[in-house]
Amino acid sequence: xxxxxxxxxxxxxxxxxxxxxxxxxxxxxxxxxxxxxxxxxxxxxxxxxxxxxxxxxxxxxxxxxxxxxxxxxxxxxxxxxxxxxxxxxxxxxxxxxxxxxxxxxxxxxxxxxxxxxxxxxxxxxxxxxxxxxxxxxxxxxxxxxxxxxxxxxxxxxxxxxxxxxxxxxxxxxxxxxxxxxxxxxxxxxxxxxxxxxxxxxxxxxxxxxxxxxxxxxxxxxxxxxxxxxxxxxxxxxxxxxxxxxxxxxxxxxxxxxxxxxxxxxxxxxxxxxxxxxxxxxxxxxxxxxxxxxxxxxxxxxxxxxxxxxxxxxxxxxxxxxxxxxxxxxxxxxxxxxxxxxxxxxxxxxxxxxxxxxxxxxxxxxxxxxxxxxxxxxx
Length: 378
What we know:
By secondary structure, this protein is mainly alpha-helical.
């Protein structure tokens, strides 16, 4: 209510404001707002002892009310308005209707007015009965209000307890989170340290293996050179020469196996396999085979195949890309995978190989592939 509870001196101001709201509600045909403003005006006019207007707006409130939950309250207001204009019979009808309410305050208000009406009509016995019922319902309402206040207080205490418990649990949760995070971080650091140690260990082992391979290769090369000189410089019998040649062949085979093993453990070979594997799995790779990798591949190919790229370049007019393709043909990588490294189509790879064979290497034998030619060139 607007300004009604502030006292009599504010009634006029309240009347103007509520009337304005009532007119607006009527203009927009908003029934719920009409009912609310009419209710407020009826209540206000009742306090201002303007009974006729109180009755008028109380009726408008009931007519426009679409909320059944407040019907008994509205009957009480209309009964109160009729009481103000001394229409006691009409007042009694609506006051008795309001007694069906479940709200003790509504009943108490109705019994109070019914007691007043009975007293004015000279029915003292009924007036006393109404007074008793008024007092009983007023006490019930107050007790209920007190009970509600107690429940509210208990509820607030419970909420505070739960909040305190929640804060405690939250503190424990934060503790567990921080402890868990610290634990997993420590575990991660330990695992990272172990991983780094393993990487260093395997790197060291790889270096050692490379050094051993180099040493074994050096020894094999010395043995091969020695046997070749022996065969060339001394007059051995045919059987002795055959034995030396077989021994030489065995040494060369062992040397080639060592070179292959060394090549397969090289960084460039590992990278090629990694790129190809990535393309096979996801049809893309985050790595590229760049110019430095090609240079490394040429170097590894020359080590393994007795400077073959130098000999090819000296004898045939091959471009750098064509040398790259020749190096790939001397690996164990399938031809269909060359495109992942050279970043071109499979068809382009085959056409380029055919062009090298026919135009650059001048090979007219259709039964010989580029790999076959290179193996013969070894």
